[in-house]
Amino acid sequence: MALAITFIFCIIAARLLYVQIFWGADLKLRAADQWNREIPVIAARGIISDRNGTVLAGNRTTYSVFIRPNAVKNVEETATVLSGLFSVDPQTILKKIKGGKVSEVTVARQVEKEAIEKMIAYGLDGVYYSRDNSRQYAFNDALCQVLGFTSSDGLGISGLEKYYNTILGGTDGEITYTTDIVGIETENPVVVYREAKAGDEIRLTIDMDIQLAAENAMQNVYNTSKAKSVSCVVMNPQNFDILAMVNYPSYDLNDIPRDDNELLNSRSRNTIVSDIYEPGSTFKVVTAAANIEEYLRGNAKAFSNSYVYNGSRTRTVDGTKIKCWADHSNGRHQNQTLAEALNNSCNPCFTDIALSLGSKTFYDYLGAFGFGNVTGLDFNGEALGMLVPETAVRDCDLARIGFGQTVAVTGIQLACAVAAAVNGGNYYVPRLLKSVVSADGKTVSENPTLLKNKAISEQASSILRGMLEGVVKEGSGKHAYIEGYKVGGKTGTAQKYEDGHVASGKYVSSFAGFFPASNPEYLALIIVDEPQGTYYGSAVAAPVAKEIFEDIIKIKNIERYE
Description:
With 562 residues, the chain is an alpha+beta fold. The chain is built from 19 helices and 22 strands. The strands form six sheets. Strands 2, 3, 4, 5, 8, 17 and 18 form a seven-stranded mixed sheet that branches.
């Protein structure tokens, strides 16, 4: 008996020890949860601003409404009143009140102050409210695919709102007060307030003045060309800061079509980053850059800048006929230098370069210019592009890649490649975030410029800039020429493919341009998808770049260079 009693006593003592020491903290939390109730205090979401501090996404104060079912005294009246105020089905509210499974249910979010004042006047027991925030976008549809939007509970769903949600979100607070065991507020409750911490501001590299100019130009070409869609990116080629990014058609961030998923998914897609296309002749910038650099390095397989190409023939490579966009039978495009081949956008010359350099050398340059990989832009959903693996590439593939076929790129990939080709050969990681700023205005962190690699030498880049300036002065890019300013660039017109075949009458028109040509500060890539009527990049896309550059000249008050 003594041993049995001792054994039982030890078990009880061990149990008490476990409850007090090992289980005590959890039991305290459970007790606090039974005798206390919390009302959330939603943290103000961090604002999004452009590089100059112009607010792009801010907040307006709204409210959330909650019910404590155990504290509701008149169920029918409560359901009827709340239904009328917040347009919620009364049966839904009744089910929430009578469900009995949770201590708190949400009735409505992002409610305006006027509705809350009316609710307070009814004096409903068991009904509470707290402040939350509704996102408000200063420029409606401008930059909509880049900024993205939030859910009704304030979480980033797309765009930068999603990518930088952790920074923008902040930390919610709460108001805690004592209740009885069934959740009804006590007569003299003890109230504890824990303050919310606002999210930090993200300051972008975007220049909203340039963005609005680009938006206007892209809407104009969309309407006049009756294109399927248009897109544009403007960047600083010296550090790859994104100054503007446009996709059109767009949607209003303050009136999001949440009830039409198909429309919302198509309009909210940042095609410059996430969609790929065959670039056509704009890709010849990369081929020319590779040839110039290899010639300077003494590669005997590269052609000199004075070499005269015989462009008067159709080439057959691996049994595949490869020809130019122009009819050579009348003597056009014959006997050209590289500069003249760029002016005329002559395909056979760039076929010659790609085949002469060979797959190993040419693919080294494709990698250095970022093709076959993401650029690293701080944005979700960036596509890789499509590049035939070097181990599988045939001569006929290599020949076509040389002038921008049999390769697919994203807009941001091509823009970065051209920027590296003309800025002295430096390939940077493109960025949308410039810095993070706290709610009290102090800089939390700077997003540094990151040099990824050296694609070509400064000398090769300088030679190429001169050639591309000639394309705008006297070649296919003349519709981008601005008197008194040195503009360089390259046009592109690519046929579209559907189900592995050329889609009749469907083209992508593009232009990659920059200025001043001697030391580029601004670069724009214009993409017009399926323009109707005139479809050449020289006629459709080049004038848009000119319009944007002329607006930048006015905005920045840039003086003439010549």
